[in-house]
Amino acid sequence: MEGISKQALEGVKIIDLATAAAAPWIATFMADFGADVIKVEKPKEGDPIRGWGEQRDGIPLFWQAISRGKKSITLDLRKEKGKELLLELVKETDILIENFRPGKLESWGLAPEVLHEVNPRLIIMRVSGFGQYGPYSSKPGFGTLAEAMSGFAYTTGFPDGPPTLPALPLGDGITGIFGAFGVMVALYARDVQKMDKGQVLDLALYEPILRLLEGNTVDFDQLGLIRGRSGNRLPQTSPRNAYKTVDGEWIAISGSTPSTAIRVFKAIGQEHLLNDPRFKDNRARLKYAEDLDKIISEWVSQHTQKEAVQIFESFEVAVAPIYSVKDVFEDLHFNARETIIKIPSEELGEVALNNVIPKMSLTPGKIKSAAPSLGKHNQEVYKKIGLTDEQLSQLIEEGII
Amino acid sequence: MEGISKQALEGVKIIDLATAAAAPWIATFMADFGADVIKVEKPKEGDPIRGWGEQRDGIPLFWQAISRGKKSITLDLRKEKGKELLLELVKETDILIENFRPGKLESWGLAPEVLHEVNPRLIIMRVSGFGQYGPYSSKPGFGTLAEAMSGFAYTTGFPDGPPTLPALPLGDGITGIFGAFGVMVALYARDVQKMDKGQVLDLALYEPILRLLEGNTVDFDQLGLIRGRSGNRLPQTSPRNAYKTVDGEWIAISGSTPSTAIRVFKAIGQEHLLNDPRFKDNRARLKYAEDLDKIISEWVSQHTQKEAVQIFESFEVAVAPIYSVKDVFEDLHFNARETIIKIPSEELGEVALNNVIPKMSLTPGKIKSAAPSLGKHNQEVYKKIGLTDEQLSQLIEEGII
Asked: What is the domain extent for residue B300?
């Protein structure tokens, strides 16, 4: 069973020129399944992500998550010799990922046509705030702007409160995984459909999160419906909300099945509510959602989170505790599935990271290595394209690597 | 250039047995690039998604988005003859997608081993609330529960308010695209790495959204940090918030670059604030974020959304209007990129849907067709596996299709 010890993306070579969160994530997701990723960083400064968020003893932490399994080399693309080296590397590369402002790569003489001249099979994944063309294409792109313009913020939060932005790089994350899917589609076209040619992929940061809001698109188009904020309720089903427990924690109840309400009423010992015209069916419950939530809240407020979850679960209500990151670490099931695993790290001793998903039976992914220190793989990578120790020293001196 | 008129996933055959939102989305994303998707629905009732959300003249609207480009057949898997027909279809299939409660498929005699017996090359994508194994695996799975247990709700919203759930099927959407990526990785392993074998993929609804929160994982592991809710601020950079305009609209400002604050101060004509010790660098601004937001809010509250965006943009601040779905439809740039396009629909005349992403230069995706009516492709699909008109009538009579 020779093939089976292989990783799914073994031998797939990626150059990751990107920063901010979306585009580098594409390479991370692919490294998880065995792709060979070379992260290109600016000499001395390194990737700006190294400066993001929290640090421990000067070691950046978000960097650990997003750069796991990658190799790091330094290279200044603004210098002539830097460009030459990149083109040399591109010859042996399947995928190049970049997220410079549209036109930047071209201004350096590294347009897709130039890259395709040295390697016609190269897949070029371009991520940007607003895409490679269109009136806003030269505007800077950030996840927050995508979250604002997609309609996410407008519909998230409470009717009497402000629009709500996510507290994580959500627009970036969704773009990262959409981009990884796109790259795989292009690889399939090249290698299986025998196109034998690379191509250019154009993905704007606002597009993936907007795609997931497509339910609103059809509703507006067909009914003129402009959905606003409905807090933790949903416009489709009731009950659905977050309820506070006596120990100051919260639980969430999902009402996506018609029998949810019946089960909830049984669980709180108030089956008679089924005969109440306000709660007799989903349409009625939506109209009287406030009344219904008041009844549920009152019951929940007299139980601990653990009790409430247990009781609702025994009645097969779709219920869940609202978890902090600490709860995530301590959850029995998450531990059984190794949702979070520890890997060795030169810099931190050991570091906990989210495990590879999905789980695959024949070619399971794995985290190859901890995030690299700056330029850790200069020797390894540059020697493969024929550079000598002397040449490397020279390049360092000139600030090219 | 024969190959170039081909779609990237042309000839890839998918059976979509799934419902709820995550798993069917996997097939939708792949149909966008040319995969041939057969959606299997319960006779008469059809997919429960047909009952979700809004309708126009009895035509379900969310269904239009999630079932575009698919064929619909009816088939009752609970009946012996139904199982036989499924196994017949599986012989000619590359990918089977399912999201039954773990163990359900097995209880019907349709376990992966049985499917692999008739087609060893089959890729089986299994989506479930909590995965195929682990103590919670038999619990029901809904997006809301994933959003609650991943830490999303705990960190979204305001410090003095409740945890905030998203107003869209977010956990489902992220799972859908992660699943599509996983399927492509498995296809690559099978067809390019010459494994020549299918495999089983196991994806739990809580895993993908938790993966995007991985920054919190590392911070907790290394520093014991339990991040709570910080409203529209971010713990990493300031300013970042949503601000209300004089016309009752909102704008968002992203502070992910160090120069943002300088540009904001210039835009609001208060450059002197740079000398204020409270705002001199990002660390100081984070500490005095409330003061800073007050100053920005005051300025924004005197301008319309349009004015505020224009002025901030002229100073290169990362700013965006907070859009409703109506604004999305009217945006100049989105229109130029055809972010939303109209396609013909038998049932609705025409329907607006979110366009295929990413944009690919050589093998662009396209929406093949509008969502199908129930059983629309019974004739086409079943005749291909050799059934006659008589046999089809018989199957309908017996309630098998």
From this structure: 240-244+250-321
